[in-house]
Design a protein that fits this description.
Elements (H helix, E strand, L loop, with lengths): L1 E2 L3 H13 L7 E2 L2 H10 L5 E5 L8 H11 L4 E6 L12 E4 L4 H12 L1
Parallel strand pairs: 1-2, 1-3, 3-4, 4-5
Helix pairs in contact: 2-3
């Protein structure tokens, strides 16, 4: 699952993860949308989420929700301007701008 509030970037990373990575990808435009989807479908292996998003669930809160409700689901967080104090321990992170192929490699490593 790709959770990104910027539609152009969300579409681009989804396309790369699908075409280059071979992943089946579901998109969500907010943490709130992601939680609604995850409540209905608990078969998501990995969530790639931006940290800064509007709504009730930003990326940090979404990650905490996933850890509490779907502990087997892996999370990869991303942000262009994350304070190091806001990083969650034991949660994979990639700074924006990121290399798309590096994202694929990181997700594959998380799933293995």
């Amino acid at each position: 699952m790709v959770v990104e509030d910027e539609p152009g970037l969300r579409g681009l990373i989804t396309e790369v993860l699908t075409s280059e990575g071979g992943f089946d990808v579901v998109e969500a435009g907010s943490g709130d949308e992601a939680v609604a989807y995850l409540e209905a479908w608990d078969n998501i292996d990995c969530v790639f989420t931006d940290v800064r998003m509007p709504g009730h669930y930003n990326g940090l809160e979404l990650t905490a929700w996933i850890h509490g409700h779907l502990p087997k689901t892996r999370v990869l967080m991303t942000s262009a301007n994350l304070d190091p104090n806001d990083r969650l321990p034991d949660v994979a992170f990639m700074a924006k701008p990121y290399d798309f192929l590096a994202v694929i490699r990181k997700i594959r490593a998380l799933l293995n």
